[in-house]
UniProtKB/TrEMBL annotation:
Protein name, as recorded: Clavaminate synthase-like protein
Family: Belongs to the iron/ascorbate-dependent oxidoreductase family.
Coiled-coil region list: none
UniProt KW keywords: Iron, Metal-binding, Oxidoreductase
Molecular functions per Gene Ontology: metal ion binding; oxidoreductase activity
Transmembrane region(s): none
Species name: Viridothelium virens (Speckled blister lichen)
Domain Fe2OG dioxygenase: 192-304
PROSITE patterns referenced in this protein's UniProt entry, alphabetically: FE2OG_OXY
InterPro entries, alphabetized: IPNS-like_FE2OG_OXY, IPNS-like_sf, Iron_ascorbate_oxido_reductase, Oxoglu/Fe-dep_dioxygenase_dom
Length: 372
């Protein structure tokens, strides 16, 4: 999350709005292999699937806070020159990947506009998005709009330092699951082509009753893990026991200075056989006087590297596929595993065509550590 100074650029989050109870995890403690912190982050990610990562007091984390400030600044400036077109939903392949407007349930433009920067562009990897020879992604580095290009070193910092933080979180999961330290990281190495992106998001102020509606539809993230930074509220998580159609189950997440919001996404559920939890979330209207200003949000959506397999990990405390009692064909498919690129495309298509039933996944109970 942004620095305390950046937080003064918007009205404060109201103190009379109920907020979700979210674990606060210290990056510095994870860096020091603090066993209690490793358990706390694992518990948070097997129950709610969200936690706050406090970057303060860690040298990489302190630099990351500055990168986040710069990325949030770039968001507003980028959207100012972006095409907020009614037809953006049907724009060309290239435009669709870079500029976009989210769709509402009835197909109309939602209250979020966004711009996407790929990790492959920022880190000079061969691009995962090159499908046709004339794809603009062949250009390296990709010419993003000036507000982004002028802060390229900060976006590089955001990716590299964000990935460092993720390495520490993944290491905690591995130790808690009794698996080799690198088992998750080797499936999503930053220097390998992947669908990992930075999404810069803006929503207009929500002043009128008509504007006080959902800004980004309820979803789970289909990658592996997401880092999120914003100053204004609006993000809501679904309580684990709640029905998405019941408004009372949705709780605001209060942005905290110096902290990132982190959430587990679908690939981690897949690899762990449902142990880690990918929780539904959405962006609702901004509460209180924060609604007077545009909402800016920056997400690092980390996704599996293109060539990795999506089969369930075998080992440690991960439940065996054979314990699931599902039909033979499904079991065989899960053991063989699709490549990440095919798995991801299937998910994206299902989402676009409305075939994916949106629901939180994972959170499966585990045997206690001592019993393994
Ligand atoms: O802007 C936010 O707070 C949430 C964004 C989000 O959920 C996403 O980009 O997947
Ligand atoms: Fe999301």
């Amino acid at each position: 999350m942004a620095s305390p100074l950046f937080f003064t650029s918007a009205p404060p989050f109201p103190d009379d709005v109920p907020v979700a109870q979210i674990a606060r995890i210290s990056l510095e403690k994870l860096a020091n292999k603090d066993a209690q912190e490793a358990k706390a982050v694992f518990d948070a990610c097997t129950s709610l699937g969200f936690f706050l990562l406090d970057l303060r007091g860690n040298s990489v984390g302190e630099e990351l806070i500055k990168d986040v400030d710069a990325a949030l600044e770039a968001t507003g400036e980028t959207m100012d020159i972006g095409p907020r077109r009614e037809n953006a939903l049907h724009s060309t392949y290239a435009q669709m990947l870079f500029w976009g407007i989210m769709k509402t349930k009835n197909g109309k433009p939602d209250r979020c506009e966004f711009y996407v920067v790929t990790q492959d562009d920022i880190l000079h990897n061969p691009s995962r998005f090159c499908i046709k020879d004339d794809d603009p992604f062949h250009t390296h580095p990709f010419p993003n709009p000036p507000p982004i290009e002028s802060r390229r070193h900060h976006l590089e910092g955001f990716v590299n330092r964000g990935q460092y933080a993720i390495t520490l979180v993944l290491r905690a999961f591995s130790t808690q699951l009794g698996l080799p330290e690198n088992i998750f990281r080797e499936r999503m190495q930053p220097d390998q082509s992947s669908g990992t992106i930075i999404r810069l998001i803006r929503s207009a102020p929500s002043l009128t009753p008509e504007e006080k509606r959902t800004g980004l539809v309820a979803h789970t993230d289909y990658g592996s893990i997401t880092l999120l930074a914003n100053v204004t509220g609006g993000l809501q998580v679904l309580r684990p026991d709640a029905d998405p159609s019941d408004e009372r189950g949705w709780e605001y997440v209060k942005p905290e200075p110096g902290c990132l919001i982190v959430n587990i996404a679908d690939a981690m559920v897949q690899w762990t056989g449902g142990v880690l939890r990918s929780n539904m979330h959405r962006v609702n209207f901004v509460p209180g006087t924060q609604a007077l200003v545009p909402r800016h949000s920056v997400a690092l959506l980390v996704r599996p590297q293109m060539d990795t397999r999506m089969s369930r990990i075998v080992g440690g405390r991960i439940p065996l596929v054979s314990e699931d009692g599902e039909d033979k064909a499904k079991r065989a498919e899960e053991l063989k595993g699709l490549s990440a690129i095919v798995w991801e495309r299937r998910k994206a298509m299902a989402l676009r065509e409305g075939r994916d039933i949106m629901k939180s996944r994972g959170g499966r109970a585990l045997q206690p550590l001592a019993a393994v």
